[in-house]
């Protein structure tokens, strides 16, 4: 395997990681922003108020996007990794 192939697969792998993590990160960002705004408006400074809703949102989004993530990772594995393994 050549260096260019390694770098190309690494670049594609990092892009797949970015694509699959985006829904969860966006859910955490939006939930944190809403909770932060709520805390600023009401002056309630409770740590569990930020943690529990973020956790619930992350788990819900992960559960909803699990099929997309699995299909994306399996497709990457079948189209990029297996041909490199069989080529060697």
Q: Could you characterize the architecture of this molecule?
A:
This protein is mainly alpha-helical. It is built from two helices and no strands. It has one domain. It starts with a helix and ends with a helix. Belongs to the FliQ/MopD/SpaQ family. It is found in: Cell membrane.
Sequence-ordered SSE layout with sheet pairings:
Blueprint: H1 3-42, H2 47-87
Helix-strand category: mainly alpha
Radius of gyration equals 19 Å
**Subunit organisation of the chains:** single chain
Distance from N terminus to C terminus (CA atoms, Å) equals 7 Å
Question: Low-confidence parts lasting 5 or more residues at pLDDT below 50?
Answer: none
Helix-strand pattern, N to C?
HH
Whole-number mean pLDDT: 92
Total number of domains = 1
- What percent strand? under 5%
Strand segment count: 0
- Largest beta-sheet characterization: none
Q: Any idea what the shape is?
A: elongated
| Helix content bin | over 70%
- Output the number of helix runs: 2
Quick overview of this protein structure:
By secondary structure, this protein is mainly α. The protein is built from 2 helices and no strands.
